[in-house]
Design brief:
The protein is built from 10 helices and 15 strands. It is of the alpha/beta class. A 5-stranded mixed sheet has the order 4-3-5-15-6. The chain has a 5-stranded mixed sheet with strand order 11-8-12-7-13. A 3-stranded antiparallel sheet has the order 10-9-14, with no helix packed on it. α1 packs across α3 and α2 crosses α3.
């Protein structure tokens, strides 16, 4: 015998005790009368006591049945309430969404969108975890994350939100002092600033439209775990480095930085929404993913950082 209570049998018993009829209970629960009868017999056998006195015309609770009926009916009511609450959450977005977002992108692009999201979904709250580290979604209990990188093969589910190009960058001062590389292979002769949380943090992988691929291991005096922290050294001419376009946008517009090797591309040119594997996601998670996909696809992602209109 299972150590777990026979919840289905007790729920059926509660309904029979209320309606005083196997046939009416079967009709209400959309099951056969035989199924109802077997459920009651199963509970009686488990408890070692008869729950009903049955005649051809009348169904009456025994003493044991009367003692059990109130508890069974309370259990059924609680179960129905719990199911109704869960169903309402699945149909209407409500509850907490835990999200991991890269620091700079989260501050510049996600945080400014949240007031509008809360106006649209007042019953949803967000725990926004800002870090450039590739967090463990499942181990950390996250519902989703935004990642700006080429995604490795994994069990995570990914949805592309918008393009976001990576660039190799250097300041005019650095290029004047060290020269302008013409080919990725020449980067071994240059000072490279590193980013700790790139998927391949010790390697820059360049590809040309022709299919040619060149991998370079940068070497230099700085490695950072946040893209904004690299900007001052890049602008000052300490070295060259790879950053997402949204971080370098203002410096490029001000001609404080230049894009190098424009005929070559770096992997990872997209903003992706990733979620743990599994079945259907709660409506609150789907609502946030759809909202971000709609808003990030708008021209606002092309504005200078810091603008809110």
């Amino acid at each position: 015998m299972s150590n777990l209570p026979d919840l289905e049998g007790l729920a059926i018993f509660a309904r029979v005790a209320e309606l005083r009829s196997f046939a009416r209970t079967a009709a209400e629960l959309k099951m056969s009368k035989a199924t109802v009868s077997k459920a009651i017999s199963r509970v009686e056998a488990r408890l070692g006591a008869r729950l009903f006195n049955r005649t051809s015309r009348r169904l009456a609770l025994t003493d044991a049945g009367q003692q059990l009926a109130a508890r069974a009916q309370a259990m059924l009511a609680e179960g129905e309430a719990a199911e109704s609450e869960a169903l309402s959450q699945s149909l209407s977005p409500r509850g907490l969404v835990r999200v991991a977002v890269p620091m700079s992108f989260g501050v510049s692009f996600i945080a400014p969108l949240l007031p509008e999201f809360f106006r649209l979904y007042p019953d949803v709250s967000i725990d926004l975890h800002l870090s450039d580290a590739l967090v463990d979604l499942i181990g950390g209990g996250f519902d989703g994350a935004i990642r700006i990188a080429a995604l490795p093969d994994s069990s995570l589910l990914a949805r592309r939100l918008c393009p976001m190009q990576l660039h190799l960058l250097a300041s005019p001062a650095y290029l004047k002092a060290k020269g302008r590389p013409k080919h990725p292979s020449q980067l071994t002769e240059h000072v490279g600033l590193g980013y700790s949380y790139q998927l391949t943090q010790d390697t820059w992988r360049f590809q040309k439209a022709s299919g040619e691929v060149v991998a370079v291991r940068p070497s230099g005096p700085l490695r950072v775990n946040n893209g904004d922290a690299m900007l001052p050294s890049l602008i000052a001419g300490v070295g060259l480095g790879v950053l997402p376009e949204f971080i370098a946008r203002a410096a490029l517009a001000a001609k404080k930085l230049e894009i190098l090797l424009p005929d070559w591309t770096l992997p990872g040119g997209a903003v992706n929404w990733v979620t743990p594997p599994g079945g259907p996601k709660p409506k609150r998670v789907e609502a946030l993913a759809d909202f971000l996909a709609q808003r990030l696809a708008r021209p606002q992602t092309k504005r200078n950082r810091g603008e809110t209109k």
